[in-house]
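Troubleshooting log. The previous run stalled partway through. Resubmitting the same two chains, unchanged.
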Amino acid sequence: MTLDPDAMTRLLDITGGDQGFVDELIDTFLEDTTTQIVDLRSAAASGDTAAIVRPAHSLKSNAANVGATALGELARALEADGRAGEVPDAARRVANLEAEFDRVRDTLLAERAAR
Amino acid sequence: MNAARILVVDDTPFNRRLLVRLLEDIGHRTVEAENGRLALEALRADDAEPVDLILLDIEMPEMDGHETLAALKADEALRDIPVIVVTSVDELESVVRCIRTGAADYLPKSVDPEILRARVDASLTQKRLRDTERELSATIERQRSQLARFLSPQVAALVSSADGEALLAGHRREITAMFTDLRNFTSFSETAEPEEVLGFLRAYHAAMGELIVKHEATLEHFAGDGFMTFFNDPVLQPDHAARAIRLALAMRERFAVLSADWRRRGYVLEIGIGIATGYATLGRIGFEGRYDYGAIGNAIILASRLSGDAAAGEILVAARTYAEAEEASGTDLVAEPGGDRTLKGFSRAIPTYVITGRRAEAAGEQVAAEGAAT
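Second attempt completed without errors. Output:
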C-alpha cells in the first residue's frame, strides 16, 4: 500500500476539516521530500554514509505525516544504516525510494484531482 | 488559558506549519525557526519579544535539539523558558537525555491536538506559577529590606520568617538588656544651637547604630540620647551577657572619640551604660496601626535604673550579668565590685559590678577589631 488513508483522515480531522490547509501541507511535503531525495542521491553517489542520516531522518518523519508507510520504511532503514556507518547498496536503495516517492506523489495528486 | 507566544523550532517545513496551525487554533501566537542556531539568534536579538514556551525538534542540521537545549539552559536570560521536545517514537532515548538537560516535557511527532493543548497548557501554567513565585519573593525581599531600615535587622527577619507570627504573639525568654544614655545631654541641648544638637545626635546615632548592628544586638528603641537594646532574642545567643558587655565596651570606646571632638567645642558629654540579665516577655507591643517589638520584665527596668545610676563613662552591670559573662567568655573582663545599689522600684539592694575593660591582650584585639570596622 502506497498510502495509509488514515493519515489523511487524521490530518483533516486535527485541522478541523480544512482541506485547503491539508493540500498546502501536502505540497510542502512534496517539495521537501524532493529536496531530501536530491541530498540522498548525492550522499549515496559520493559514498558519504554520514550525510545520508539527516535527509533520511527528515524524509522518514515527513512520510509518516502523510501516511506513506512504505516510503517511510525505506527511509528508516537508510537512516539506521547511515548511523551504523555502513549503507550497503546505497545507490540502488535511494533509487527504490525515489520510485516509491513517485508513486506516493501520483496517488496524492490523483486524489486531489478526483475531488 | 491566556494566549502565549510560542517558538516552534523544526527543520521540516511540514512539521513547523502543522504545529503553528494547531497552536494558533488554540489561540496562541507563534514564531518559527528552522534550527537551533536560528532559534537562539531570534531569542537573543536586541528587539526580541519574550517567548513563553519553546517546541523543539531534536534532529536538526547546524544545531540540533540537544545542543540548543544545553545552550538555553546555560543562558541566564533564557533558562526559565519551558521547552517541550517534539520527537518521533524511535527517539525515546533522546527524550530521556533532553529531560535530564532540562526539557519540561515531550510530544510525539504525529501530534494529537488534545495532547498538544494539554502539554502546552501545563508547561505555561508551570511557568506562570514560577514567574508569580519569583515576583512574590522579590516583593518580600524588597519589603524585608525596607523594613530593615525601620526595624532592627533581627526583627525585620523575624517578621518575614516562618515562625515569626508565633514569636511576635509573645514569649518568655532570658535576655540581657542594656540601656545607654548620656550624662549632661539635657544641659547640652539647652545651651547648644539646635543644629549643633541635631548634628551631634546624627553622629552619635550613626556610630552607636553601627556597633549595635555589628554586635547583633536587637534594638528595641532609641529616643534622643538613649538606646535600649537586648540580646538573646529573637535570635538565640547563648553568650548574651558577654555580648552585651562587649558591645558596651565598644560603645564607650567609640564614644570617647566622638566626645573628645565635642569637648574641644566646649561641651562635656559622657556616656552611661546599665546592663541586667533576667527573664522578660517579648513580642508585639502596641496597638493596631503601630506595633513595636518590645520587651517587658524586671531585667529591663533594672538595666534602665543601672544606667541612670552609672557615673559618667561607667558601665554598671548587675552581678548576675557579670557572673554569666565571666562564665561565657572566660575571665577576660576586668571589673570592680560596684557595691549594692538601692534603686527605685527595687525593694532589695542590687549587687553590681563596674566593667573597666578587658585584659590587656584581649583588649588589644578589641581595639584592633573596632579600628578595622571604622
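Takeaways: Residues 29 and 88 of chain A are 27 Å apart (CA to CA). The first helix of chain A runs from residue 5 to 14.
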